[in-house]
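note to self — DONT lose this again. spent like an hour looking for the file last time. sequence + predicted structure for the chain T wanted, 283 res
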Amino acid sequence: MAEEDIKSIEARIHETYDDFSETERKIADVILDYPGDLSAFTATELASLAGVSKASSSRFFQRLGYSSFEEARKLAREIKNWGSPLYRQGKSSPQHINFKEFFDHEIELLKTTIGNIHPNTIDEITQAIVASKRIWIVGFRNSYFLAGYLRWQLLQFRGDVNLLPNPGETFGEFTADMIESDLLIAVGLRRRPRELGQIIQSAEKSGANRLLITDPTARRLPSLVDWTLTVQTASPFVFDSCSSAISLLRLIAVTALQKAGKPGRDHLKRVERQHEILGDLNH
């Protein structure tokens, strides 16, 4: 079931809240405080927390348009898995951040990510980065700044690296221009919009090579690409971690620069020379 096609339980509650009875508002208030906890409650536990009967709780969910409490709980679990911060923040979430535990978890995510990637895959991908006529990098939401980071690294040693989407632009002009000698790099961490799959499919039809950088929640998209690199993002804290993704993108850039050899180093020298001529950077 696509995320865009589902109306969240809190949206349904807000739409109906003014018409609720006092009993129904008690249930609604418990859910709205921490929507993500609904995925862990039983119907009896929810009724107890709200101070109402189990029957009242069942009728409440039917009024919202669900066939049962279990249907609503399943939906809450799916939304939580998609990465909604609202649904991932529950009463059991850490209320005080232990810095050591925080960074230990980041390190573990990085170790797991790199440990699951075969060096031969990086070798193939970086060879394609060097050999492709043009590179198109696409990302949305948090993945947009990751895509931008990779673009800036690749631009240091090769030209014609394009970031999508740009403000005010549509995709048709770009996907229509893709050819077999191009490479599309799609950065798609969870909470991916539908457009990402459509762009990958367009690149597939053009014959361009395709790389997907994603997390373990991706479905179907890996079947549309030549390579998939999976980074670990799940965290006990409210926001997903992007540290593994940044490290992986840096590894790709560093390895690609090595493969670029003298042409890549010469390009890098020209870039640095232009910085000096134009006075772009303060030292």
